[in-house]
Amino acid sequence: MISFITGGVRSGKSRYAEQRAIELASRRTDCRLHYFATSAVYDREMEQRVNIHQQQRQASGQNWHVWEQERNLHTLLAQVDKQEVILLDCVTTLVSNELFYGWERGEEHWRNADYQRKVVAKLTALFNRLAADYQAVIVSNEVTSDLPAADEGTVIYQRLLGQLHCRLVALADEAIEFECGLPCWKKGGKGC
């Protein structure tokens, strides 16, 4: 089961996703909550955002098992019991981490169409597995509704992210878009 939650930056989607994961876990006996955090702390702003998320999880009173991993999330699944609840935050960062891996060493694999297809296939396989075996709340950002990008890397990134969002929505039992702090149910659930 997948609950896909997307929206603009700082629209309230991560807080809502945490609440949704807790709700899903409460429906099962002895269900653990897992948090797959995909972002590296690379500046002061990101450090503050991570601290806020940590405080929110602590305030929830739940025992979150936090996994901080920027890539290859499929390797974590062997350590999570099937049917447990996983909150993956966020796809936007995960796609960037996978697509642009090696950029700091001057590698530009992202320019290669075969490499791009492998990234999409790898993440699609992860999402398929989450849908089949786990209760997953997956968070992403809407970055494809901005003005058209001028640089090649951003164009490729937005295209791949859009493809993956479409696949996630197809797999999802519910798809929710956040606007101005309000959830709008696009699939399943309560409607807009």
Describe it.
With 192 residues, this protein is an alpha/beta fold. The chain has one domain (2-187): 3-Layer(aba) Sandwich (Rossmann fold). The chain contains 5 helices and 7 strands; from the N terminus they run βαβαββααβαββ. Strands 3-2-4-5-1-6-7 form a 7-stranded mixed beta sheet, with helices on both faces. The protein is globular, with a radius of gyration of 16 Å.
Query: Given the helix and strand composition, which structural class is it?
Result: alpha/beta
The CATH class label is Alpha Beta
Catalogue the unreliable spans: none
Q: Which strand order does the major sheet show? A: 3-2-4-5-1-6-7
Q: Roughly what percent helix? A: 40-55%
Q: How big is the Rg?
A: 16 Å
Number of helices: 5
Quaternary structure annotation: single chain
CATH topology: Rossmann fold
Summed up:
Helix content is 42%, strand content 20%.
How is the topology of this model organized?
Blueprint: E1 2-7, H1 13-26, E2 33-37, H2 44-59, E3 64-68, E4 85-89, H3 91-99, H4 113-133, E5 135-139, H5 152-171, E6 174-179, E7 182-187
Parallel strand pairs: 1-5, 1-6, 2-3, 2-4, 4-5
Antiparallel strand pairs: 6-7
Helix pairs in contact: 4-5
